[in-house]
Here is the input.
Amino acid sequence: MNLEDAIANPQNLGEMTDADAVGTVGSPDCGDMVRLWIKYKEKDGRKVIDKASFQSFGCQTAIAVASMATELIRGKTREEALQMSAAELSQPLGPLPPMKIHCGQMVEGALRAALEGESSPAPVSSAPATPVGPTLADALSAAGKTAGKVKIVLKS
Ligand code: FES
Here is the structure.
């Protein structure tokens, strides 16, 4: 899957209501934000990531990397997922332009926040609380289907 495909057809988009952990990170570079949910399961005596999902106030690159990351971490243990760098999480999409490196780093940060916040059922946030609801997910999903653009304006 390349960057364009991932943008047009993001996987695992939306809130996970039965998640074991959630992490949220905002980027100081652009004000965008990613929230990532993780659900674990037992497999062959190991606790592995069963599934992951995300919501994003980020740009299309952040959505594409989050989509890829939620696919790549499935079946990995918490420790294995923690080893993954932003470059590894976006590697199948090809190299990111220099201006978009932080988009991948934001996804990595949300993943780490979720992995490290595993024991806490409450959302772990290193960003100001910003409402993220189904409306955003619906809007982003619709944008993916129509290849149109969604502009989300955050109000203070
Ligand atoms: Fe800031 Fe992509 S997340 S421009």
In short: The chain is about 35% helix and 20% strand. The two ends are 36 Å apart (CA to CA). The pocket of FE2/S2 (inorganic) cluster is lined by residues 27, 29-30, 32, 58-59, 61-62, 100, 102-103, 106 (CB under 6 Å).
